[in-house]
Design goal:
GMP Synthetase, Chain A, domain 3; binds zinc ion; elongated; 356 residues; 4-stranded mixed beta sheet; 6-stranded mixed beta sheet; Beta-Lactamase; alpha/beta
């Protein structure tokens, strides 16, 4: 009999919840059933789970949480792996600067607590709760919350669009699902679908959580909310102006200049002196920047210009899947040819094989 078992057994007797005989039965059966003592006594009907939890919380002075009354903190839950939480039946409740408060059914699950402490770099503060109810709360959360799949999808997309002409991510949210497309150089490509509805704030929370600064625009119609997000994932300080870049359209960290893609005659140039975190880009549209310092995306570049530093990724249809998306093209449907150098508009048109 190990220490934990001995302690729980004698506590249950001490509180008059079981008899010596019950305990002996439990200890014998425990080995056969391959369960913990508490679980065995519950299985054979000697006590209820609440009894065990109540005794433990009394003994160790740990609060017992009635789970029906709590709302899990979704920002916090997604910081820990879903499988880990489900396997260990741990429900994160809330966090402060120093502490993270969780509900567990097993206050001796030290390895799990250590993993949380190491992951979040905070002290774990535990409360007790019924295992089944913890599990139920987690399932309910993961079913209704599309956050975990949104996060992994976005991470994946951002990794894929590095060094391509795609620089905008469109997230179209409808009642039951969410379609994700990428845009750049005149190509709109549907790339992913999440079979859950998202809340509007989820998109902003996701980019915040991924620590990716971004600009965004929102369009709403009767059935959909569409976020156009421009992630500021390209960091550079050494740019010679003027320039044409197809690098996600945006630059960090000294300043951000963004040329919108709607019109090549009068591009909407957006400018900010400092990095913008989740800033709605419509509100800074009025700040038009001096054109000699402008950075354009390829599809917003003026028709004629003198020498420009140019760095663009030219999309070419994937020869294996013809834009369907396959392993060879990273599921994007296109491969990309890098063009970098100092060119004028005539050079560029020759390179791009189009008439001026
Ligand atoms: Zn392909």
């Amino acid at each position: 009999m190990n220490n934990k078992t001995a302690k729980l057994g004698s506590l249950l007797i001490q509180y008059g919840l079981i008899t010596e005989d019950d305990l002996n039965d439990g200890l014998k059966l425990q080995k056969l059933m391959g369960l913990k003592l508490g679980e065995t006594l519950i299985k054979i009907g000697k006590i209820t789970e609440e009894n065990v939890q109540w005794v433990l919380s009394k003994q160790f002075d740990i609060p017992f949480i009635i789970l029906e009354h709590v709302n899990p903190d979704s920002d916090l839950i997604v910081k820990l792996p879903k499988n880990f939480l489900m396997e260990n039946r741990i429900l994160p409740l809330f966090e402060t600067d120093e502490e993270i408060c969780i509900v567990t059914e097993d206050i001796f699950n030290y390895s799990a607590f250590a993993l949380i402490e190491n992951t979040l770099n905070k002290k774990v503060n535990i409360s007790l709760g019924e295992g089944k109810k913890i599990e139920k709360a987690l399932i309910k959360f993961f079913k209704s919350d599309a956050m975990p799949s949104l996060l992994s999808t976005l991470e994946n997309i951002i990794e894929k669009i590095k060094n391509t002409s795609f620089y905008r991510i469109d997230i179209a949210i409808s009642n039951h699902s969410c379609d994700i497309s990428i845009y750049g150089c005149g190509i709109l490509k549907k790339i992913s679908k999440i079979n859950n509805s998202l809340k509007k704030e989820d998109v902003l929370r996701a980019f915040d959580f991924l620590k990716i600064p971004f600009l965004y625009d929102i369009h709403e119609n009767y059935s959909k909310v569409i976020f156009s997000v421009f992630p500021l994932i390209n960091k550079t300080k050494e740019i010679n102006y003027p320039a044409i870049l197809e690098l996600y359209g945006l630059l960090l960290p000294d300043f951000i200049i963004f040329a919108d893609t709607n019109s090549s005659d009068t591009p909407n140039l957006l400018y900010s002196d400092s990095p913008i975190h989740g800033y709605p880009y419509i509100s800074i549209k009025s700040r038009i920047l001096n054109y000699s310092k402008a950075i354009y995306t390829l599809d917003s570049a003026p028709q004629t210009f003198k020498k420009h530093y140019i760095k663009v990724y030219m999309p070419q249809e994937c020869s294996f899947c013809s834009t369907e998306g396959c392993e060879k093209c990273n599921e994007l449907g296109y491969t990309f040819k890098k063009i970098e150098g100092i060119y004028d508009s005539e050079d560029l048109n020759t390179i791009l094989n189009r008439s001026a």
